Amino acid sequence: MRRGVALVLRTAFRRHLGLSLLVIVMALVLALMPAVQLRVLGMLVDGVGQGDRISLLPIVLLGLTLGLSTVVNSIQIPFREQLYTDVSGDLLEKELAVFVDAAPGDLSDPGVQDRLRIRRESADDRSRVLLDTLLNVGVAAVTSLGVGGVLFSVSPLVAVLMCAGAAAPLVVMHRIRTVWQRAQEDAAAPQRVHDDLFHLGAQPRAFDAILQHGGGGRVRGESMRMWRVVRGLILGAQRTEALLCVVCAVLTTAFVTAALLVLLRSQDVSVGDMAIVASSVAALATLNQLVVWASGCVEVAQFVGDLDAPLVQRAAAGPSRTGGEPTRLEGIELEGASFTYRGRTAPAIDEVSVRLAASGLVVLTGPNGAGKSTLAKLASGALHPYQGAVRWLRADGTSTPPSWQEVSVLHQDEAMLPLSVRDFVRMGTDASDQQIAAALRRTGLGPLLEAAPRLLDQRVGEGYEGGAAFSGGQFQRLCLARLLLQDRPMWVLDEPTSAIDVAGDADFLDLLRETGAERFVLVITHKELGFEDGDELWRVEHGRPRLLRPAPAGGPGPDAAP
């Protein structure tokens, strides 16, 4: 909790100090108004009760306090909203830094996925709620102290009794909260069963299976049984809450009545004092809200505080290459490399020792689930082997650990991010429009660029206003243009021609071979046709690669594992 509160307050005061102070001052004015109004009301009632000519001062003061409260409340709303928006924006920017600071493979961890989901919710909605809650807690606390001070000036004993009457609901509300938490915990399991039966059963395949097996009655009966369990728990909690509210009302009434009786027995009691005590009941009700807001603050702060922690705990980084452009790769060597995905017992890659050459294309083929993608991720540094080692063999004779920052990847199901075509293609670079256009022409998108002169300004995806429509093959070429501009030492391409027709398939592969003279190109595919003698061809089965065709003579020949 402390970390979440500290993060929000630190963001507000460091980056928006003036606005924060203005909002706090206006909140303090509103918080002190109930105490001032009580005192003025007592003066006014005393004047009426004495039968003399009523002084204009209490009337004017009462009118001024009411008017000031209305004016300040109206003015502070847009300023509060501005502060909430600014702080939420700052924290959202902090949350979006995950796209800069994270590494490939981070989201394969379910725990990281959960933290990212929490951050996505916290950065906007929850941070806003937390800041509003903190301000409301402060206002309620100041209001309660001010009203308590006015009551203490009337009679210390009366002040104690009135505060006790106002505090009684705090204990009751805590108990109510506990009752509902327990009910929600007990209802979670049956509610999930009910939801899963309903939603999964409504899917076409499951729906047909239920009908074919004659299981409709069982599904309906079990779903209704779980629903009745949940409703019973909720109704039980509601009945308990109603009973506790009755107890709360009785306690509050008893304390307020005792305070009034004490005041009546006092020798120097005035009508104004009686009015102050009677009117303070509503003002002290802010204590109840104080507990509600404070308890909500605890919950929300726990989520927001996660923004101040790293998404992924990493080991200390080893020595990195320094100085100049990355050296060209001559090959990649895996030595006894093994990798097993979380939650599985069988390794995806099992003690693989191979050397992948860098002459032409290096092609990994094989059936689904054979380990092609895992092998490529190990070779490119997106995954790290649980045992064994992976080394990059560079043209300058050195060997280094894989560095995913030096790798460009073209996925089979590449995300069609709704950026402008310009920003989509130059992602990771500062390429000019001329360089972007040259890359598009090189990948065969020249005709599309000529037909739409403002193509670079259009958003990727026809589902967006002014969006550009791309066929599957055109989109893959668009992604390849991005790789050309990034100009990194290694490319990994997953089914790069899956959406390209047969006529364009050969041209696309020729372009890959052309770029293969400049970098290491690793291709993942199901098919073995269309690749030339200059391409190194591997078949991966059961987590182990087998060399089908070696690199051409004169190149760095692969050493296949037995």
From TrEMBL:
SMART domains: AAA. The keyword Membrane applies. One of its GO terms (cellular component) is plasma membrane. It is found in: Cell membrane. The chain crosses the membrane at residues 21-42, 54-75, 129-148, 154-172, 242-264. GO terms for molecular function: ATP binding; ATP hydrolysis activity; ATPase-coupled lipid transmembrane transporter activity. It is a multi-pass membrane protein. Residues 332-561 form the ABC transporter domain. It comes from the Bacteria. Gene3D superfamilies: ABC transporter type 1, transmembrane domain, P-loop containing nucleotide triphosphate hydrolases. Keywords: ATP-binding, Membrane, Nucleotide-binding, Transmembrane, Transmembrane helix. Pfam families: ABC_tran. This is ABC transporter domain-containing protein. The lineage of its organism: Bacteria, Bacillati, Actinomycetota, Actinomycetes, Micrococcales.
